[in-house]
Structures are given as C-alpha cells and as structure tokens.
Amino acid sequence: MAVKIKTNDKHIQALAEIVGSPRLILFHQEDLIAYDCDGFTLHKHLPKAVVFPKDTQEVSRLVRYCSDNDLPFLARGAGTGLSGGAIPVNGEVIISLVKMKRLLSVDFENRRAVVEPGYVNLKLTNSISDKGYYYAPDPSSQYCCTIGGNVAENAGGAHCLKYGVTTNHILGLEVVLPNGDIIDIGQNGIQDAPGYDLLGLLTGSEGTLGIVTKITVRILKNPEAKQTVLAYFDKVIDGSQAVSDIISAGIVPAALEMMDKTAIEGVEAAAFPVGHPKDIEAVLLIEVDGISAGIEEQINQILEVCKNRNVREVRAARDEQERGRWWANRKTGFGAMGAISADYLVQDGVIPRSKLPEVLSRINKISEESGLRIANIFHAGDGNLHPLVLFDARIPGQSEKALAAGSACLQVCADVGGTITGEHGVGIEKKEEMRFVFNDEEIIAQTNVRDVFNTKNLLNAGKLFPSPGRCVEIKKEMKAAAAQ
Amino acid sequence: MAVKIKTNDKHIQALAEIVGSPRLILFHQEDLIAYDCDGFTLHKHLPKAVVFPKDTQEVSRLVRYCSDNDLPFLARGAGTGLSGGAIPVNGEVIISLVKMKRLLSVDFENRRAVVEPGYVNLKLTNSISDKGYYYAPDPSSQYCCTIGGNVAENAGGAHCLKYGVTTNHILGLEVVLPNGDIIDIGQNGIQDAPGYDLLGLLTGSEGTLGIVTKITVRILKNPEAKQTVLAYFDKVIDGSQAVSDIISAGIVPAALEMMDKTAIEGVEAAAFPVGHPKDIEAVLLIEVDGISAGIEEQINQILEVCKNRNVREVRAARDEQERGRWWANRKTGFGAMGAISADYLVQDGVIPRSKLPEVLSRINKISEESGLRIANIFHAGDGNLHPLVLFDARIPGQSEKALAAGSACLQVCADVGGTITGEHGVGIEKKEEMRFVFNDEEIIAQTNVRDVFNTKNLLNAGKLFPSPGRCVEIKKEMKAAAAQ
User: Do B201 and A448 count as a contact with CB atoms less than 8 A apart?
Assistant: First the structure.
C-alpha cells in the first residue's frame, strides 16, 4: 500500500513506505528547520528527512535502506545533547526515536526495567516511585531527555558521584547495527558477562556504532533518608579544600555541587532564586543519603569539615521543600545564565579533585584575557567542571572568542591530567580537542573499532574524532605492513 | 651483546636477545611443563618458550618480534585462571609478566594506585592498609593472583556484590597492542572519558586484544565498621528466600554468600572447619559494612529476615577472629572439595536471584542423572553460582561425564535468563557454551572487534569464541555485500 506524499525523491518515498504513513516523515524545508541542531546551537545543518519509526523492525528496515542506498543517517532522541551529536552535518536522514517511548516492563524482584529509547528519563522514576524505586542517572535535562540519548552520550548528573554515570545502570541493549542487523548485548545485567564488553563499548559511543532500540536499566530502591547541606565560602580555596576533606573523611555524598560567584549571580537572577549571598566566592550543595541511622552522623561530620575551612554559613535543609528549592536553583543553573548574558557556551571538563583551586585560577585568567565572563558550575565531588562562557553572538567576533575560551578551558583540564568531557560528549563541538588527550595511535585504535561496526561510515559520520591528519597515513602504513 | 643459550632455533635466540639474559627465557621441555596449563587442568599443551620481560619496552619488542615472525603468543600472570585462558593451545610463546611486579605509585588524595601487571592482588591492600585504604576486588585466589590477570578475566570476588567487579575499579591501562604499539587508555579514572570505552572493552577480554603493562586502579577508604552474620537453614528454599528478602529490604550487603550441604561437608573436612552442622541444606554468610552508626540497624534487619524464613540458627560474629575464621572457611571452599573427592570441576554460572530455588533443584537432577555429586558454593547476592562437580579422573569416562554435567549446569543458567560465566571467563573451557547465550550475529560482532586489534590472530588465538561454524559463511557474505 503506497503512502501518498508529494515528492519526486525516490528515497523519501521509500522511507515513507517503511514507516507507513505520511504523518511519520518530514521532508519539507520548513519542517526540517526544527532539526537543524540540538542543544549545541553554534552549528546548523538541515537533514534530508526525519522519519519516526514505531518499532525495532522499522528501525532495522530504515537503516538497511539507508545503508543499501548510501544515504547518511543518524538517530535522535529529544535533541537535548550539548555537543552537537545529533546535528545532521552531512544532510543525514534523521531517525527520530520519539515515537518509541514505552515503558515495556518492570521487574522489581530483579531490579530491572525495560524501556524503548524515546522514553523520557524522569518518567521512569515517576512510574516506579510509588513502589519505592527510582532510576539513578539524573542529567539536569531529565524532565525531557530520553534514555536512548542518555545511552548514546553516557549521560551523567548531579548524583553520579555516588551512583555512577549511565553506563553503570545499563544492563542490556537491543541494537540495530549500521547494516540493519539486530543484536542483543549485555546479557541483562550480569556483572561480568562472557565475551567482550560490547555493552560498555556501545554506551557513550555517541550514536556512531549502532542505534539502540531497547534498553534494560537497573532500578534502585529509594534511600531510606536523605539530607542536604548548603555551605557559603568567602574564598573558593576554602570551598575546594572542604570538598577534598569531605571525601577524605570517607564520606561518599550522593551529590557534591559547587557554584562560583558569577554562577550565583545567574541563578539568583533567574527563575528559582533562594537568597544566596552575592559576595561569596563559592556555594557548596552537599547531599547524603542512605539508611536513616547513619545520616545524622555524616551531616555532623560535613558541618564540622566546613567550619574547619572558614565557612561563612552552613546548615542542613529544614525540610523537603527547602531541599527541593535548593536543587531547583542548582539544576536550572545553565539556563539561568540567560538572565545575565545574551548567550552562553557550556563547557564540560574533568580534573583530579585536588587540582580544583589551580584550575579555577587558570580559568579566571582565560576570562580576563578573552574579556568574557566565565561562570563555573560543577560536580565538585568528581571533578567535573562546567565553565559557562558568557557572550553576545550579536557582537561580531564574540562567538569565535567564546569557542576559543571554552577550548582553552579544556586545554587547562587536559594539562592537569584531566580530560575534555565528563558527561556532554564530544560530538562535533570538541572533535579537535580530542587531540589534547589522545595521540594518533590512540585515535586510530578507536576509529578502527568504529570502522568494524560502521563499515560504510554512513551512521553519524564526522563526529567524535578529529579530522584525520596523520592518522590516515599511519593507517595505510599499518595495512601495508599487515598485507606483507 | 649476544645472550649465550644452547639452541639452534633462531626465534628462541632472538627472544633471548630481547630479554637480555639466559635466565629470563625457558625453552627446555622440562622447564616448559610447568606452563602447560593454568587453573583449568583438563587440557595441557606445551608452549614454545616462556619469556620474562622486565618492562613495557621489552614486552613491545617481544610482541613485535612474534607478530613479524608469525609466532603465536600470549600473556600469563600467576596462572590461577580457571577457564584455561593462559593455556598455550597453539604452542604459543608465553610472555610471563611475573617480573613486572612493582607498585609504581599511590595517590591517596585522588584515590588511585598504579601497578605493574604482575603485582599480586592482595599485596596492594597490604601496602596501603596502614593508611586506611584497600583495593576492593577480592577473588578467592587474591593471595597469589596478579592484577594483570584480574584485568584479563575481569575477576570478581565475594565482595563484588556491593563494590563491583574488576572493571569497576580500573581507571587506566597501558596496553601493548598485538602489533607492538603501546597505547594508554582510560584517562585515569574519569567516569565518562571521551571516545569509545576501550578500557571497558580491554578489561575482561581474556588476553585476546592486547597485553596490559601498567594498571591504574581505584583504591577505597576502609569502611568504618563491618559485621558478619552466619545463618543456618534446614531448607535451601528458605535460605534462597532470605537472600531475596535482604536485598528487597534495601540492604546492600558487602557480601552475601551461600553454601549447600555437599559444600559444607567439604569445607568442614578441610583446613578451616568452623563447626557448621552437617544436616542443614544451606548456610548463608552475610557481611555488611559502612559507617558505624548504620551497621547495627542493618544487622538487626538481617536477623529479623532470617527468623521470618525459618532459620535454624543465626548470629553475628562475636569478634574479628570469628569473622576471619568464617571467611577462611568460605574462601578456601573450592580447594576444600579435594578433601571429599579425588577431583573436582568448578563451574561458574549466573542467574537472576529470583531463580535460585528452581536452578538448585535442576542442578540436583543433573547430579542424579550423571551419578556425580555436585556441591554448590555461590555469591548468592548477585546470583553467581559455582557448581563443583566431584569426580575421579582415574575412573575411565568420569572426566567426560564431569565436563558434560558442568556444561548442563550452564545450560540451566542460560535457560532461566542467566549466563555461562560470572567471573572465571570463557577461555577454552566454555567456548562452545557461548552459543547458549549468543547467536551467530552476536558472536560475529565480537570477533569483528577482536580482528581489528588482533589482526593476525596470533595473540591467544582459539580462546573465548566457539569454533566458527556458520559464522565464517556469514562473514564472507557480509564482506561481499560491503564490497558491492
């Protein structure tokens, strides 16, 4: 049965036939504009078309069609990614997974749930919280981002300090490979399943190795109790030292967040102000959770540590409402920058915790030299830093300056033994910065892996790895040597 | 400067030159016999030679020599592996890493240590315990197995229920690739490092993708307190149900071990008897750790759960001595089978926790049908089962019967949604059983990955994957299709 759409493009017609309805394909320019970028907005490209498959078989048929006809293609969830991983830089066919959004099953006894990739992160916790369970990875966009996208980017969140990032919560995946084959990987959560860890390999591969169509996740029992502490420091060095002291005391907080002066200015000017003083250099938000009996002791230890580090004011949340307000203030921190700046660029570096003071002072220097303000919001407990470069795209040259300042921040992270992304991925944004942390041989080891999955490199090409440079020659030499 | 050894074999001479001393190479048959198998003793093969490099550069030069001259080779640690991963089935050159056994550095502030691959697991904890730290993965062989071998097998242990297996504690690796190139992977412990997760891929790849020459591991702060409970159950069904109840109560024990009646008979006849009653069907050993304030509450909950499940006797350890005796009794459980049987075969399956009673009863049936006793010792908390098939190799046909019974146990695990290995690896022992859990496409996806690293398949060939069967044809078809 032919799907009736107005097009002379045989590929568009064929793709429409696969999804079976004119309402499940977009190909007019005015419809495609909404898909020309994701959460990283500094590059825009139109896709060839956007298709909305309803199940794994349709994804497989779409992929096989694209592969057989040499059409570039990529998968997209909610489009909240911050590094441009879903931008169709080659005019890709976008396979949108938003129609595959069911919660397929929950197995409380073995603590697993199975979801489709378009299922929204926060919905899972909402669906199981009445039984006392939740899903741990909590990116700030969790109210709208999809679990499929979280898998692609190996998303983190404030509570990953204690509970780990997405990869620590994925137990199994159904994947459509770039040739259309469907495989199951991960053996449903067995810690050390036989064979290679393809589950770990696919998770965080930024949509370059396959398209995930079903996800088995771990669900956790709600902690019996949780409590949050807020601490204001006049000096950032004292706040940083308190972070180290808390960890050294053997406490593993569920979350340990820091914001600096500029970030505080932003969050206090935006939707959820809570009255942070504007003259302090650092605020810490520290949450502990677990069995009730242990919480108070840990809170007391944390208060003690902060007092020993010249804290101006420190206290635990009075009630759940106050705790909720503090978190809303923090979780909307990126967007809050819009209240004090026309535009902002979020960066995402990682450093050893012990280097915090040094890195912050070097970022200050970058800010001074570029003439752009840089706010810092970060998951201090695990050293994941988010410098927010504030700029105004309407002023000629400022976008470029902001990108350069962001890149310089990442160079600082790499210099002190850290790396260029903690949770936002590389995408197109940080491709060239991969060279800050990998040499040619190391990049080749990775692109070789991509090439065995993504044989024709039609799936999300041009992402994640730097432009080849010397790698191409080295690969040729290696092939010649192997052929001897 | 030529190394003087008595050989006409130019390859042996060349390998000796690389390690630089006649004392660092073995090639006489009487010396090689010690290397004809590892902890899996049912297959034996002599290596061509055994070499003992002192550093990464020597490993690289040995590997390059083997690769250039088409000599099969493999790496070996302490040889405690239980699935035959270090057996030279192709007459390999064995690259023994036991001389590379240094603790290179410890960074308490950022909680990392760097070791060479031949460093013994337990030595690490012993070296840092005075500062209040330890290394979590604790395979029963930890007093002699090497961390390099742990990485190859992604080793587990009793405390992996709470703390995860080896892969959760590896932060970075230096790896010699099968062509001799040296790469660094893992970015030193950043949770979500950019690029593909090669660290996860290499960990547990059973020595088929590269040779690890340096390892950065996570170290943990000692828990403030720990306590262990012992519980005797007349009926295994009650013990199993208690396991589920403890987890459902939201407690995450550090360890949750079970032994059945035959296993108890063994451990009570061996070196560390503790007086377990012999007429019970199950003993549970349950350990909790964490901050002091919470321990007592958890112990009380556990006692309560056991009482609700008809426990015959349950109590917490009186003191550290008693706790130590209980663990010595459990940790020597495999070897203890030697006290009640001439030979034994350890199997290693994984099942969903909820299937415990069903699986145990099916294993009993396998035991009856084969006429061989089967003891069960297992990490009950994470469903990792170790059926120990007791047999006498001197009786013709019994070895084969034992292998068949072991394989049948794994088929049961696969049938209920589990898998064929939890921590011992596949090696040569369970190659064919891989088909219980992977179809052709899934095996091909894995061997394709192997082939990009191990291009000539000289490194530890013939391990981990089943004999090709239909995979060869499928691969040919795929290649032909890709070439079109």
Answer: no
